[in-house]
Amino acid sequence: MTGEEMLSDRFAGKAGLQQRVLPAYRVPFFDMLASACEGGLSLFAGDPLPDENIQASTDLLVARYEPGTNHHFLTPGSAFYRCRQEGIIEWLSASEPDVLIVEANPRYPSTPDAIDWMHKRGRPVIGWGLGAPPVSGPFGFWRNRKRVNLIQSLDGIIAYSRRGAKEYQALGYPRERLFVATNAAYARPVGSMPDRSAHIDNKPVVLFVGRLQARKRVDNLINACAALPSSLQPGLWIVGDGPSRQDLESLAQVVYPSAEFLGARYGAELDDCFTRADLFVLPGTGGLAVQQAMSFGLPVIVAEGDGTQADLVRSENGWLIQADDLDAISESLRAALSDVERLRRMGAESYRIVQEEINLEAMVSVFVQALRTISNLIKR
What we know:
By secondary structure, the protein is α/β, with parallel strands linked by helices. It has helices at residues 3-6, 27-35, 88-95, 111-120, 140-152, 162-170, 218-227, 245-255, 267-276, 289-295, 309-312, 326-337, 340-356, 360-379, and strands spanning 15-21, 41-46, 64-67, 69-73, 82-86, 99-103, 125-129, 156-159, 178-180, 205-209, 235-239, 260-263, 279-282, 300-303, 318-321. The protein contains 14 helices and 15 strands. It has a seven-stranded parallel beta sheet, sandwiched between helices. Strands 12-11-10-13-14-15 form a six-stranded parallel beta sheet, with helices on both faces. The chain has a two-stranded antiparallel sheet with strand order 4-5. The longest helix has 20 residues, at 360-379. The protein starts with a helix and ends with a helix.
C-alpha cells in the first residue's frame, strides 16, 4: 500500500522542503509526504561532513531531489557552526513551491534568503525543528537573538515534540501557528505483535541496537547488567558496530562475559533479534531503534535526549531515564526484569502507541494539516 493510499488528507499545492542533509532514514517520510501533496514535493539538501557518520541517501521514489552545495564553517558540534547552502534560490526559482518548509535552525545563513524569496511572492514558510532550549555559553545573547529573529519570520512551525512546541511558545510564538508532528522513523506496524510467553524459561533477553560509539553509553548498560543480582541477570544482546566496539568487548570480557556482540544486523536478521528479545534499552543519546523496538511489542528503557523520547516512552510502556545515570539504568533494569507479567503488559502498550499514535502516517498527517492551515491563513 502506498503512502497516498494510506492518507486521506491531502495538500492541494506543491511543497518545497529544505534540509541541510538528507539522511537515509528520512527517505520513507519524504516519499510519503510527497504522495500527500497533489503538486508533489521538491527537496533541497546538501552533503554532510565526512566525519559526521550520517548515512545519506538520494534514493527518493516519489519526492524530487535537488542537490545543493553545503559550505561548512567549523563542525556541527561547535556553537559557532554555520552552513551556507549554495543554490537554494536557484532551486526555488525552478521548483516554484506554493509553501516552503525549512529547518528552523539559525545556523544556516542561506535560510533567511529563502524565506525572503518566498515572502516577496506572498508564499508562506513553515519551520520544522526540535525546539528552542535556553542558549548559554559565549555570545549567548547574540545567538539567541538570531534564533528569535528566524523563528519570528516563519509563518508556522512544526515541532518534533510537545516539549519543543512549548519552547517555541516560550519565545512568544503564537500557539495557533504551532503544530506537533511527533518524530517517527517507521510506518504503522501491520498485523499483530510477536506472541511472547507469560513465563521466561531461561534468562530474559535485553537488547541494544545502534551504532557503537561513546555517546550511546553501552558501557553503562554492560555495567548495570553486571550489578544486578545473579537471579535477574539477563542475556545481553548488543547489535551494531562502530568505533567503540573493541573497548566495549574488552569491558564485557571483564565484568559481564555473557554479553553477546552480534555485529550489524539488517532485515530479517534484525527482525529476529527484536522478536526474540524481552526488553529494549537505549542508555545514551540518539537512536532510531526505539520506535522499531516498540513495533515488535517491546517495553523500553530510554535515556532522555531532545524531547522526542518523552512522547514515545511513558510509565505504561517503559522507563525514561537521564543519560549517563548508571544508577537509573540499574534500577530500571531491576524493576523491569523482576515482573515478567508487567513487562508483557508494557510491551503491548508499546505496540499500541506506535500503531495508533506515533508513526510515519501520523507524522505526515500533521505536516499536511500545517501546509493547509498556514496556506489558508496567508491567503486571507
